[in-house]
# Entry
Amino acid sequence: MKSLKGNPDFLIIGGGIFGCAIAWNLARRSSGSVLLLERQELATATTPRAAGIIRNLNTKPGQTALKTQTKDAIGLLSEELEESLHWHQVGGLLVAESEANILHLEDLDRHAIKHGENFRWVERPEAEDLVPWLDASKANKFALLPDDGFIDPYLLATFYAKAAKKNGAVRLQTNSLRCIKYFLVLTVCSADS
Ligand SMILES: Cc1cc2nc3c(=O)[nH]c(=O)nc-3n(C[C@H](O)[C@H](O)[C@H](O)COP(=O)(O)OP(=O)(O)OC[C@H]3O[C@@H](n4cnc5c(N)ncnc54)[C@H](O)[C@@H]3O)c2cc1C
# Structure
């Protein structure tokens, strides 16, 4: 891994969950020196406002890859930092009322069978038992996704950042004004091309 003296090999602008995750991934790949510039504090913009729900089953390939990598990262980060990230695998209940939503559930069922993922149709009494405050009177179909769960998004972002920083070639700079300089450079470059 290269040292941080001089210009970084990688510049990341923004220390939300994506910036922190990219910094950690670059650090793990020993790709070169990394500088992350955050104009405020890490993970204080959109990231802490998320519910932090991770849907296990998704018919979109991009979403599936993101989910798989995030779940792998949760395990790796806990090992690296020797701290729990408090992943809550509580399962998700999907409730369909309209024809379109029922078709979506059927799509997910087919997708789950094809990819060996967990999906289970449940009857109304079981759904009401699982979520007692749910008014399911108008719902027609229910499905349980047992591998779904949630995580504190702020905690996950700060774990990415801490683990990235543990690696000597990553520097995180918060309350930073330096990004303006880099943006000007990028603007000039794109005007030339
Ligand atoms: C109410 C709500 C619920 C959500 N629920 C979920 C959910 O359950 N599951 C899920 O997966 N997603 C959810 N999301 C979406 C998720 O929160 C976002 O996709 C994610 O947080 C985006 O992360 P980010 O790093 O791109 O952005 P941010 O967290 O916004 O980080 C961007 C950072 O860049 C910094 N920045 C911007 N410009 C500059 C600059 N010029 N120089 C330096 N720094 C700069 C900002 O200060 C900020 O810290 C939810 C979002 C909301 C609002």
Residues 187-193 have pLDDT under 50 and may be disordered. The beta strands are 10-13, 34-37, 53-54, 92-96, 120-122, 141-145, 149-150, 170-173. Helices lie at 17-28, 61-81, 99-115, 124-130, 153-166, 178-192. The chain has two domains: 1-51+152-193, 53-150.
